[in-house]
Design a protein that fits this description.
Oligomer: single chain
Structural class: alpha/beta
Number of strands: 7
Shape: globular
Keywords: Hydrolase, Lipid droplet
CATH class of the largest domain: Alpha Beta
Main location: other
GO cellular component, one term: lipid droplet
Pfam family, one: LIDHydrolase
Helix content: 25-40%
Family: Belongs to the AB hydrolase superfamily. LDAH family.
Radius of gyration: 21 Å
């Protein structure tokens, strides 16, 4: 079992080739809930290897299209969501670098998490744009989100489209970057309370004092039961029929952390309240105009001159956090058709055929399959650059 101090709050893999770095790619990952990025280490490692051909490739055909020959500077980066830090305490409320809505500290709700993601994305872009060649092209950013991270991804895409349309104030106009694609994995983007687990958890999470009761229970387990090793409770709380020792160690670290349990419950409760109808603009976010719009319109107006972020969705077959009928309606209304004729920039959507669990990254074989699919989609978007 990995010791807690070996776990990190961020994961970063870099590929550099010789020569000028005029073309660059950043894969920016958004975790689900619990928002601990360590649960995704193997998946992110496999994804980076697939993109750079650095080691075994899960999609052998990808060898024919070596992405790093076209983009010599590739970074894969993921950070735990705010409040889920295992190694660092939350910054002081006086830290003015963070969004105003987060300065009082955790636990954070869904809106605050989205603001935190935008902040970290801006910081990552600023860091990767330092010391680049003057003739460097804009940094291409591909967002990858899992579960509620997919909902956050959609909100970031909506924000990005507003910014490039000139309506926002949160983007540095001199910043050389663009969100070219978003990949949603086992997404919880609509009607979460209609899902099998949502139907139960909406009542459980509404129990007064649940956050503190769960925190107290976790504290008792970590201080009384864990030391005498009479019950491997982290393994019982880790999803999957046979969780690995590495993932069990991550769960143990999460439950030992001062904020992990409260933050998990606080965010989950807000997910039940906020993740409801399809709220995003049919053109600016979904990528195509729709004559039969039944969603809440945003004030952003479509413009042919504004680049659209290409979206991809990988749905679970019978995902316990997703209502199948709601999923099917989204696919019918928003997805790109097989022939693609007249579909503009509509998202590509597929439904899993491998019997994967919602927490796909906890099973190494499943994580490899998903990594290969994500790499294939990334090549589709940026491979011709």
């Amino acid at each position: 079992m990995a010791p807690p101090d070996s776990l990190s709050d961020f994961i970063e893999y870099k590929y550099r080739s010789d020569g000028p770095h005029t073309k660059r790619l950043l894969i920016f990952f958004l975790p689900g809930n619990p928002g601990v990025v360590e649960y995704y280490r193997d998946f992110l490692s496999d994804l980076h290897k697939d993109l750079t051909n650095d080691g075994p490739v899960t999609q052998p055909s990808a060898r024919k299209d070596s992405l790093q020959e076209r983009i010599p500077h590739i970074t894969t980066y993921g950070h735990s969501l705010a409040g889920f830090e295992l190694q660092a305490s939350w910054p002081s409320s006086r830290d003015e670098s963070w969004p105003v809505c987060m300065r009082d500290g955790p636990p954070f709700d869904l809106y605050q998490q989205i603001e935190g993601v935008k902040f970290r994305l801006n910081e990552a872009v600023r860091r990767y744009n330092d010391r680049v060649d003057d003739d460097a092209e804009p940094l291409k950013v591909v967002l990858v989100g899992h579960s509620v991270g997919s909902y956050m991804l959609m909100e970031v895409v909506d924000w990005w489209q507003r910014e490039i349309a000139g309506e926002g104030k949160g983007l540095e106009k001199t910043a050389k970057w663009e969100v070219v694609s978003g990949v949603c994995l086992f997404p919880t983007v609509v009607d979460i309370v209609k899902s099998p687990k949502g139907k139960v958890m909406k009542w459980v999470l509404a129990i007064p004092g649940l956050q503190w009761a769960a925190w107290l229970l976790a504290t008792l387990l970590t201080t009384l039961i864990s030391p005498i090793r009479i019950w491997n409770w982290p393994a019982e709380l880790t999803p999957g029929s046979n969780p690995s020792s590495a993932n069990t160690a991550i769960t143990a670290a999460l439950l030992h952390s001062p904020l992990g349990v409260r933050q998990t419950i606080h965010l989950a409760a807000d997910e039940m309240r906020q993740i409801q109808h399809d709220k995003w603009h049919p053109s600016n976010v979904w990528g195509a105009s729709d004559p039969d719009i039944d969603i809440t319109e945003t004030s952003v107006k479509a413009s042919a001159a504004s680049p659209r972020t290409k979206l991809f969705f990988y749905w679970g077959r019978d995902d316990y956090w997703v209502d199948n009928s709601s999923r099917d309606r989204v696919i019918e209304k928003r997805a790109r058709r097989v022939d693609g004729a007249g579909q503009g920039g509509r998202p590509t959507m597929v439904v899993d055929r491998h019997g994967m669990d919602h927490c796909f990254s906890l099973e190494r074989a499943h994580g490899k399959i998903v990594a290969g699919q994500v790499a294939e989609w990334v090549r589709e978007v940026v491979g011709g650059s």
